[in-house]
Amino acid sequence: MSNITHLKELESESIYVLREVAAQFERPVILFSGGKDSIVIVHLAYKAFYPAKIPFPLLHIDTGHNFQETIDYRDALVNRLGAELIVGSVQESIDTGRVKEETGYYASRNKLQTTTLLDTIDKYHFDAAIGGARRDEEKARAKERFFSHRDEFGQWNPKNQRPELWNIFNGKKAMGEHFRVFPISNWTEMDVWQYILQEKIEMPSLYFTHERRVFERDGQWLAAEPCIKLKPTEQVVTKQVRCRTIGDITCTGLTLSTAHSLEDIIEEIAATRVTERGGRADDKRSETSMEDRKKAGYF
Amino acid sequence: MIQERGYLDMQLLRFSTAGSVDDGKSTLIGRLLYDSKSIFEDQLEAVEAASKSRGNEEVNLALLTDGLRAEREQGITIDVAYRYFATPKRKFIIADTPGHIQYTRNMVTGASTADLSIILVDARHGVLEQTVRHSYISSLLGIPHIVVAVNKMDLVDFSEEVFNNIVVSYKDMAQALHIRNITFIPISAKDGDNVVNRSENMPWYTGAPLLEFLETVPVGKDVSNVHTEGQGAFRFPVQYVIRPISSRFPDFRGYAGRVASGVVRVGDRIKVLPSGLESEVTHITQAADELTEAYPPESVTIQLSDDIDISRGDVIVRADEPQPHQEQELTVDVCWFNENPLQIRSKYIVRQTTNETLGIVRTINFRRNINTLEKESGVTQLNMNDIAEITVHTAQPLTFDDYRQNKVTGSVIFIDPDTNETVGAGMIKTE
Predict the structure, then answer these.
(1) What are the phi and psi torsion angles at A151 (to 5°)?
(2) In CATH, what number is assigned to the domain containing residue B391?
(3) What is the pTM of this model?
(4) ipTM at complex level
């Protein structure tokens, strides 16, 4: 008889959290970005409620600046699970004047997503939005609860969070407020990849090495796509790369890599000396940019 | 590849650390993270830059754990921060908690899920008021292992005598507390003595360095320990009922939950509480996988041979094992979290496992002075960070065990029905 491994314990904890969400809320939704963390969340939800269908729809906030592979993967996944997909469009938020598009070389729709997200949560009366954020990713996220309260403006108040003890979660709220729930809070990047390997979860091709037209900016490689305006000095070249995180094209740094398989990726991560968000342009804006965005209602 | 396979077999150890910057707590955590290569270059660069812009001469490793703007500005830890690191032997989760008395509630929060607690003692000062406080909270929360790390040994010439005197005075103090295992380790976090590597400065110390101890201490998750830990009885609070009502599974009815304690096997005779109805376990599943048995802390789905009425909040136990208590009167050690004081006759929502009911505070038996451990009587209300023994009358009977026997079925939280805030945490006493 074997012992409970750390992956088993983490999986069990996350499934417990997902079942608490189903029991405590009326209209929960899974925030699905197409990245590895939200793919793992969907897999955990599948396991938590089997043989019933996942009792939550999937919500994708589409910046309009996605890699095509992300959209293809999303649609195939939704099809296979028979899940409901809701898309919140940042383009629509721009067209209706809810937000204003940034301009310049560093223009990104990353920040604009917050408005689209909050509008969509409001429109569908979602009372719990399940996300794949992890505490090891970023210092403000290290302070997150599993059940994280949001006021009627969608704001996070990090200085007055509800204490969370043992595994007793308090999802009580007033009308108009909602919760963000983070079932894989205690997982690290390594845990996520080991779990993907253990569970043989099919992953988007973007995570594995491929040839791509890229350019270098501020020490990181970005995809040469029409949504990023090149500076006159920036040269487009073709490289063997992979994504370590997947988000909006404008803020997804690419890693030079020859990793073909999950085992290769795990080996690469074990040897790396830079965090996964080290490649995220959105985190580099200031020392507390994540805290500031989270307070406003970001993922 | 061997290392990868090792990683898949690793166990998880959750530990908490309490203390302030002065104790060298941040330095210790920084060293554990740094020496286990869990601090990445970009994190280190960010901390170096932040230290410099604050005018700190040395790299301030506390900035790694103090993530919030207010914490970084004030140079203090306010909230629990969780840090992660792994060695080839184990994965670790650190709940790093503030040590000041006004953050007692955060210490309690961090300690609630810990398997082990590290208490730092400054070798120059020995056992202080805050040592007593941290030890009391660790014992109150039922943490099975305490490591007393006697830090700054370099400042007392690595003296064995100083260390031994601290051991004696700590053991003296700890007699009043229910602590099962205490381990004393002399360290110097600044230079790494006995943290990761054995110290050459203290040849008289023959025990394991801190990290080696953390890698090898039994965590009670070994299946063989289930019965020897004295927490043998099976407890399964029902979280959610799975009913697909699909053409493929027209009659499926599964009870989803996490095994709180004990073991359950297919074929076991079980009882559902509070109804008392009995049935037999026909299937234990994890998604599509059929299991023959389940242990804590596994999340599983259980199917029974009879179609009986079971819903969230019920507890499934084995018919042939000791039964839990079912009562409306609770005696609870409570830690108060809120600015609105607890008062006698106040009503709160009491949440326990997956169940909830209303409760009214009947009495405050005594308040514990957590610096001296004395009992204070005649108390009429509890303020934020107070710890006290109270009695509560609930609207419905709860199914529970003594917290010392079972942390899952013995713990409660109190929720203010007006603000929805979690205002207190309680540990049920039956003895």
Answers:
(1) -75, -175
(2) 2.40.30.10
(3) 0.90
(4) 0.89
